[in-house]
Amino acid sequence: MTPSPSQQTPQATRxxxxxIVLHWLLALVILAIFLVGTYMTDLPFSPERxxxxxxxxxxxxxxxxxTLLRLLWRVTHRPPALPSTVTRSMPTWQNHxxxxxxHLMYLLFFAVPLVGWAYSSAAGFPIVWFxxxxxxxxxxxxxxxxxxxxPVHELLALALVGLAALHIAAAIKHQLVDRDGLLARxxxxxx
Length: 191
Prior knowledge:
Largest sheet: 2 strands, antiparallel
Shape: elongated
Radius of gyration: 20 Å
């Protein structure tokens, strides 16, 4: 028996608090990892560079764990549908771009840290998460393979940052140009 309209739960118009926290936390971690990664690669070999590489790897593994948590949350907690005012006014190509961008970002959320982990393993630099928890190597030490993997990690990281920039630009467009309130669904505070 279908519940009457008065018995049905209203459709959520905002993301859950957990989804919002994970979204913004992952955004900050992506930014931090990218900035540290860009900075550290230009440093000469030194204790500071080694320290930053460890921080970068620890943040990458943390990002991977948070991404897994976010994906599990998303699978078990359906996100709110796009408002009908948005779907009616959004051209088909934008709707396809919206979905493609999100799927590619999730793919890169896993690919970037896993390829970085593989690079670290192949280069012979094991990851000891926060200096306390030794993680298994994904590959055996192979310096030649490491040299092939390193640019792939960098390229995937650039792709992720590029998609994140596109995601941000679309959110700003919806907020400032379309004025459709779409951004408010992911803001920490109700507007």
